[in-house]
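#onboarding

Welcome to the new folks! Below is a worked example of what a typical request in this channel looks like: someone posts a single protein sequence, and someone else replies with the predicted structure as tokens. Don't worry about understanding the tokens yet, we'll cover that in week two.

Example request:
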Amino acid sequence: MKNTFFFRNVSDLKELLDKTKLKLQGSRNLQAYHVIGSICLSKSDYEDFSNNFRYNHKFLFEFMDRMKIANDIWHCVQVDCELDNGILVMNGGYSHPLYVALPQEVFNSLACVQ
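Example response:
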């Protein structure tokens, strides 16, 4: 099982990176996650998505009823493009990404840079 840090109501990728870096310096309260689906976007669509998490992204709608926390495991969708490792999304029943996280591989590489 993979683990990461999920954050609520994050605006964009820059804020997510900043929050993840701060979390790496302190607490190690990681959440276990399972990717229930993957969405590969074009570069321009991924940039739009990563610059505004609070927007209702239609490509998430098909997964809305399956994104949840069950038995302490976050069931999420990975949104990526060929140039990036992706962003984990768990919407909590909303039509926008309520919770976002970086995949374990990405925050592990951030920890090595710290």
